[in-house]
Amino acid sequence: MKLSYFPGCSLESTGKEYDLSSRAVCKALGIELMELKDWVCCGATSAHSTNHTLSVALPARNIALAQEQGADLTTPCSACYSMLKKTDYTLRNDETMRQKTENITGFKYDGKVNVLSLLEAIITGIGVKSIAKSVKKPLKGLNVVCYYGCLLVRPPEVTQFDNRENPESLDNIINSLGAHTIPWSYKTDCCGASLSLTSSDIVQKMVGRLLNAAKEAGAGAIVTACPLCQSNLEMRRNKGDTDIAAFYFTELIGLAMDLPDTDRWFKLHLVDPRPLLRSLSLVR
Amino acid sequence: MSIINQEGLDFYREIREKSGQPIELCYQCQKCASGCIATEYADFYPNEILRLVQLGQKEKALNCSSIWICSSCETCGARCPNGINTRAVIDVLKEMAIAENMVKEKKVHLFHTTFLNSVRANGRVHEPVMLAIFKLKSKDLFSDLGFGFDMFKKGKMPLLPSRVKNRKILQNIFKQSYQ
Ligand code: SF4
Ligand code: SF4
Predict the structure, then answer these.
(1) Which ligand number lies closest to the CA of residue A49?
(2) Are A276 and A247 in contact (CB under 8 A)?
(3) According to CATH, where is 3.40.50.11810 located in chain A?
(4) How big is chain B by its Cα radius of gyration, in Å?
(5) Per CATH, which fold does A2-119 belong to?
(6) N or C: less crowded end of chain A, CB within 10 Å?
(7) Residue-wise pLDDT tens digits, B6-49
(8) What's phi and psi for B168, nearest 5 deg?
(9) Residues of B with CB below 8 A from A209's CB?
């Protein structure tokens, strides 16, 4: 399977281990990622909060590039995914906006490229059974809660993926790795996203709720699918609170497949997950 | 007698049209508010924002904190029994608040401007420099310095920005979006 790949700005910096693990895992699972040549920032919250035209034009430029490459477009970042998917929805359904955007970005939208989150690409393209078969080192003893965040499944009419209140795709993947996922009620609650930089006190409270709920559920770690969720969970927790680790789901797939680079990813975390993994003899 | 004057009515109609959301259908069930974590820390819940718009309360709706504290999590819209996406309404309110010079949460707006300037310059956000500029401008240089240093040590803060090559399309996107 070939896919156009949009890493996004966070994956070049704060979410570097998500980029590295996504590329490594896709390669190992037989997904060929072709990074979009000359991709531009999706505009994120800053664009849709201040200029609607820009918030459609920037993602549209990337859809144009994917169209040129002729392969469906995937991105690991939920926030980028949301911008790209919403833009695709607009271009598909809003004639006026489509014409306007085509003029601004200089391309003709043909609707052939599908936008997928990396989670969706892996679960629909590879499937839980094949992932289970590729496991070399089952993640025995690892109890986690899966944290989808808000934008992977919402708005439901746009994403058309999984259940908007109680999604299960990520749980299914993580269970297939031999880890144990615990049900909890905070799967799609918000982490505070980019408020982290402007109102960190609020985000600290939002993250505190999540961490407490995860601990109450008996989890040793939270599994994420977004660089904003991950960095808020690591950065905006109370100082010294190292009880609970946070992983990108791709890192756990890579660990279970026994890929060579896992230690390099874990080293990049702001809260080191290796003590937990060592206690379970999953890393040395 | 009418409880809403012409100016209020025009305001309501403009937000209704630009957001494309059936604002008139909101019957204040508060399902949106009960799932909204962010505006719990601000002045109005999402249902209250819709009521302000319905009643043409332009200044109150534009000059409020909640529209900027909203994290755009899409929970309100996913749960509304009447299919109203309040996040989309809030985006329109923010854009109008900027145009009318009524931005209540200046720091949030400053962040958005700094972020987009970085996109305009390089086509991508160079997080280290963008964050440094934002911290400087918001006079809050030291709050996350420890994290910044940690990330730098780990090699997560590239010194040079990665840049897009096709500057022409990028410039055109910005030029036409701000017309
Ligand atoms: S859920 Fe919908 S109808 Fe109910 S208060 Fe919120 S916006 Fe109004
Ligand atoms: S999108 Fe905004 S208003 Fe709606 S639930 Fe999320 S934070 Fe609240």
Answers:
(1) 2
(2) no
(3) 134-279
(4) 19
(5) Glutathione S-transferase Yfyf (Class Pi); Chain A, domain 2 (1.20.1050)
(6) C
(7) 999 999 999 999 999 999 999 999 999 999 999 999 999 999 99
(8) -65, -50
(9) 37
